[in-house]
């Protein structure tokens, strides 16, 4: 296995861990468990850092890749806003999370 594919696997695994933390945190917060806000915030932080890392590591992207990287970067701020909303006590976190999920699914279909 080459060094590049190993780094890609690590990046993908970190993203999966982040999404699992977001799912667990949102389910726990839905059932009003206070600790799970922090799990959700950790997952949101990992999502933002992962998208920053992918943006930084993409060498000479074409116009389409640049556009997708920018969209993903701004989109990754939605879980961070959802985490802020959880700590603020409002229910807007559900809206932010649904928008993030829907746009991510649409972008993954367009990426193929």
Question: What is the radius of gyration computed over CA atoms, rounded to a whole number of angstroms?
Answer: 15 Å
Whole-Å distance between the termini? Answer: 24 Å
Following the backbone from N to C, one meets helices and strands in this order, namely HHHHH
Sheet with the most strands, sense and barrel status: none
* Structural class by sheet pairing and helices: mainly alpha
Low-confidence stretches: none
* Structure annotation, total helices: 5
How would you describe this protein?
With 112 residues, the protein is an all-alpha fold. The chain has one domain (3-111). Helices cover 85% and strands 0% of the residues. The protein contains 5 helices and no strands. It has helices spanning 3-30, 36-57, 63-75, 77-88, 92-111. Helix 4 (77-88) packs antiparallel against helix 5 (92-111).
Detail the topology: elements first, then pairings.
Elements: H1 3-30, H2 36-57, H3 63-75, H4 77-88, H5 92-111
Helix pairs in contact: 1-2, 2-3, 2-4, 4-5
Describe what is shown at a glance:
The protein is mostly helical and 112 residues long.
């Amino acid at each position: 296995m080459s060094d590049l594919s190993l780094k890609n696997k690590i990046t993908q695994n970190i993203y999966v861990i982040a999404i699992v933390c977001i799912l667990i945190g949102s389910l726990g917060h839905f059932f009003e468990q206070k600790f799970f806000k922090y799990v959700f915030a950790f997952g949101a932080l990992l999502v933002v850092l992962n998208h920053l890392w992918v943006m930084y590591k993409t060498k000479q992207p074409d116009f389409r890749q640049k556009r997708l990287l920018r969209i993903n970067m701004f989109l990754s701020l939605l879980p961070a806003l959802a985490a802020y909303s959880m700590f603020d006590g409002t229910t807007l976190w559900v809206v932010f999370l649904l928008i993030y999920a829907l746009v991510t699914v649409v972008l993954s279909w367009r990426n193929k």
